[in-house]
Amino acid sequence: MGLSASKKIATGLKHCTLWKADRSPGCRAVMMALDAMNLSITEVDINIDKGEHRTPEMLALNPLQTLPVLKDRELVLCDSHAICAYLAGRYCDSGRLLPKDPGGRSITDQHMHYNSGVLYPRFRAAAYPILYENCNFLMPQQIQDIECAYCDLECMLVGKSWFGGSWATLSDIIFASTISTLNILVPVDKYKFPRLSGWLYRVSEELFYVTANRKGLCEFSRRIDCGCVKDDKEFKCPRTSMRRRTLAADS
Question: Interhelix angle for 241-250 vs 25-37, to 10°?
């Protein structure tokens, strides 16, 4: 899906702006959704370490001080799941990413609820002390909780190559952003979780993953390992999603 999408002319949405930080799984989920749909919007990089998500401009958009933030004309959305579903529902007519039938849509919603209610909280509990509190290790309970989630995901993949069914859907994009990040903290054991490990390899070969997830994943890994702060020289904003994809393809 991702490879074929890259050969089409991107749809430019000049009235849409995305404020994001590449190391955030939620931001990368939105970027992958944009790339899978071949949509191009204005993207603004926010330096979390310098508190740019707390400026008066950003607080006016999102008092919760979280990223990503999407503005489409007068509509402002501040949750990655809501943003991905909105973009797919409004700007993707094929129904491949977000099924149009109620049953298929409910399965996607179920996966997004699992990500927001189980996976992401476990990621946050494990990663935030390392990112922001000078902690250097995971607690045994955090590792156990993450591996329990891996077990759930392994069960969800019984009889399927993709979480959404026969091809990569929004379910896979949402999960890919969080699971690939968790994999840095607690690697997915290919012997204990063969289906999940195989899925992670397949999704990592999708073009939307290459262009929208790998760079931020490397940044997160560096931050976890050495606490390095992103160089201001890397910030070139605003730029379009198409420009970001071109830079990713050239790197």
Answer: 100
